[in-house]
UniProtKB/TrEMBL annotation:
Protein's name according to its UniProt entry: Cytidylate kinase
Keyword Nucleotide-binding on entry: yes
EC number per UniProt: 2.7.4.25
Residues binding ATP, per UniProt: 10-18
InterPro entries: Cytidylate_kin, Cytidylate_kinase_dom, P-loop_NTPase
Gene: cmk
Lineage top rank: taxon: Bacteria
The reaction(s) this protein catalyses: CMP + ATP = CDP + ADP; dCMP + ATP = dCDP + ADP
GO molecular function, one term: kinase activity
Chloroplast keyword on record: no
Species lineage: Bacteria, Bacillati, Bacillota, Bacilli, Lactobacillales
Subcellular location: Cytoplasm
Family indicated by similarity: Belongs to the cytidylate kinase family. Type 1 subfamily.
Length: 222
């Protein structure tokens, strides 16, 4: 059977990873969370007190890092050199520094290379910011997921509540807007919809409705 490459891009908290995991599971494909890779490097930089502006040091750090994933009940665990960082890379210190780390061209070059190696193994669903434009420009399916800042902040707020993490909706809104701005305005591979991507606004859609729309698009390519 034919295997294809599926790229899912979009701004922060648009639901990319949620739908990517579901679609990957249904197809029996690899799911690759590229944001987790940028987050893992940011986490390691904080641990090592490496400045987020120090491109050379960041690349050095990255070259010494093995980033690996392990399936875990429909989700994934993330490891850096064998240490589990699944939860640590989602904390706000990492979230608020990751855009600065990911803006460096040499950092992206190294991570894009690793992402392309993962995709070379076969059927893949990869989510991020530059998958359709830079990592997998020949992907058969390209989705650009968007939703209003209000809706995305509210989803994240509810998710945090359910995990018992106290947050402020206003702060979340500001952080999301700021990260989108930085990711869209960097020089190297900014967040932008690929010309041949299908844009899906999920503001008033359920997860199942989004997945169903993506299934329909995939069906035309299989
Ligand atoms: O997807 P997630 O929100 O976890 O990504 C964290 C950050 O990693 C993004 O805000 C962005 O700065 C960076 N990133 C990127 N390119 C990707 C994936 C993530 O620059 N393909």
């Amino acid at each position: 059977e034919k295997t294809i490459k599926i790229a899912i891009d979009g701004p922060a908290s648009a639901g990319k990873s949620t739908v990517a995991k579901i679609v990957a599971k249904e197809l029996g494909y690899i799911y690759c969370d590229t944001g987790a890779m940028y987050r893992a490097l940011t986490y390691q930089a904080i641990q090592n007190k490496t400045a987020v502006t120090d491109e050379k040091q960041l690349v050095q750090l990255l070259k010494e890092m093995v980033i690996s994933f392990e399936p875990n009940k429909g989700d994934q665990k993330v490891f850096v050199n064998g240490e589990e960082v699944t939860d640590a890379i989602r904390l706000s210190d990492v979230t608020n520094a990751v855009s600065a780390v990911s803006a460096h061209g040499e950092v992206r070059k190294e991570l894009v290379k690793r992402q392309q190696e993962i995709a070379d193994r076969g059927g893949v669903v990869m989510d991020g910011r530059d998958i359709g434009t830079a990592v997998l420009p020949t992907a058969e399916v390209k989705i650009f997921l968007v939703a209003s800042v209000e809706e995305r902040a509210e989803r994240r707020y509810k998710e945090n509540l359910s995990k018992g993490i106290p947050t402020s909706l206003e702060v979340l809104k500001q952080e999301i807007a700021e990260r989108d701005y930085k990711d869209s305005h960097r020089e190297v591979s900014p967040l932008i919809q690929a010309e041949d991507a299908v844009r899906l606004d999920t503001t008033s859609l359920s997860i199942e409705q989004v997945v169903e729309k993506i299934r329909e698009i995939i069906q035309t390519k299989l």
